[in-house]
Amino acid sequence: MPSSSLADDVRSLLSAFEVDPATLQGGSRLVRSPIDGSTLAEIAETSSKAAEHAIGQAHDAFLAWRRLPAPQRGEFVRLIGEELRAHKSELGRLVTLEVGKIVSEGLGEVQEMIDICDFAVGLSRQLYGLVIPSERPDHKMTEQWHPMGVVGVISAFNFPVAVWSWNAALALVCGNSVVWKPSEKTPLTALAVQALVARAARKFGGVPEGLTTVLVGGREIGEQLVDDRRVAVVSATGSTRMGRVVGERVARRFGRSILELGGNNASIVTPSADLDLTLRAVAFAAMGTAGQRCTTLRRLIVHESVYETLVPKLARVARTISVGSPVAGDSLVGPLVDGDALAAMQAALSKARAAGGTVHGGERVDVNGERSFYARPAVVEMPQQVGPVVEETFAPILYILKYRQIEEAIALQNGVPQGLSSSIFGNDLREIELFLSAQGSDCGIANVNMGPSGAEIGGAFGGEKETGGGRESGSDAWKAYMRRQTNAINYGRTLPLAQGVTFNVEEGSANA
Ligand code: NAD
């Protein structure tokens, strides 16, 4: 039984969620808190046989669930949202303990879950199709949407619960079942969410067994989910390296995938930018969540006329921002997830120096001893967009580049393999509209006078190129969890063919 004050805290939180304490000990997977490196739990991994069974059950659950009217499915999601509202502070704290997010960001993640549940409840009465004019007399064409089947959700450590909800809330109202494989680094928050869903199911009066399940494990169990033909949709969030494997494997069996992969997000600071607002926005976007958001600001492209005003201030913020434990005090920058993340950060900074970069900040900070990994955010002035600047390093490093012409800035912004999020700071309408136009940012998200991070659930979330092309959350992202069916209906007594084709057989021959 792991013993530390954080482990005690986790145990009492999970027991309040009615998670069986026996699941937290004796297993082969150690779950550590990035806050101090202490072991929070030793949990058992789902065996391949149990995963096979869970996927089968999820498939059977789908067959029953799809028969329930969508607004009733929405009622179940409404109850999930109620549980999340009632347990927001406990689940938010668990996110902080398991991932190391500062308290307000842990709570914000749960708020995002509540928001998507609300959205999905409304959506459950709006899964609209079209009525399309037919070219044939006495004919009608319609389009309707049907559920896909089992939706597999593979999630990353950095949004351990919100990503599940973006997928699950929509998938459930659309009539699907959900099998979730959370990150191996964050199974505890997943077990807590599953327990809340079980409560909502009881209040609902029961849902088909296996409608939502959790598989605990790493890559192998993820691959089992990916390869199973009964899993109609695989929504995978994580690194581009993972997405390349998952995307190919799902395509090989003609399954559908929603890929939400790495980003390398940039902001352009134009001469007309409000520099005070820009400074605050850039600090949050680059240093918040210790640089561990897919939408974290990683490259700042600054016009030469404002460079000397803005960049020294940013370097000062990096040198002075509070780095520390998210449970003691009010630090703005918490820990990196593990030692590998710190090593990757230091390797990227070495490469940047070798490529002529000037590094401000970026050093390791001793907060809770050797087994935890805190770092001061780095601001790195680069002569060119080369080496580590075109890669995603999942840590708080902000590379700064200088530009003269807006076209050059947009080319730099687009000149990386990833295409998730982007933004521009300024008040010149021409420059802003150019950035938002087809010749502008090539990303899935393009913001104005704010950083690239911190999306709301109302819009579709996702990005292009090596970010994978998937969209989740708001707008019409729900369509990815449904299959489209086109219906042509003849309510007349003749059989006119489309495109004027004639195909006359002798009258009465059908009865001959
Ligand atoms: P990761 O790729 O290491 O792991 C993500 C998930 O994929 C985990 O659950 C892991 O077990 C699983 N996985 C790994 N290999 C697999 C395989 N071959 N088959 C099936 N599953 C496999 O990512 P991470 O370190 O947990 O998260 C950080 C990365 O996630 C960053 O690149 C970040 O940009 C990205 N991310 C993207 C978004 C987005 O919406 N675009 C959101 C959050 C995080």
Fold and architecture overview:
A 7-stranded mixed beta sheet has the order 12-15-16-11-10-18-19, with helices on both faces. The chain has a 5-stranded parallel beta sheet with strand order 7-6-5-8-9, sandwiched between helices. The protein has 2 domains: 47-261 and 469-485, Aldehyde Dehydrogenase, Chain A, domain 1 (3-Layer(aba) Sandwich); 265-455, Aldehyde Dehydrogenase, Chain A, domain 2 (3-Layer(aba) Sandwich), CATH 3.40.309.10. By secondary structure, the chain is of the alpha/beta class. The protein contains 14 helices and 23 strands. The site of nicotinamide-adenine-dinucleotide has 29 residues, from α8 and α9.
Could you provide a short overview of the structure?
With 512 residues, the protein is of the alpha/beta class.
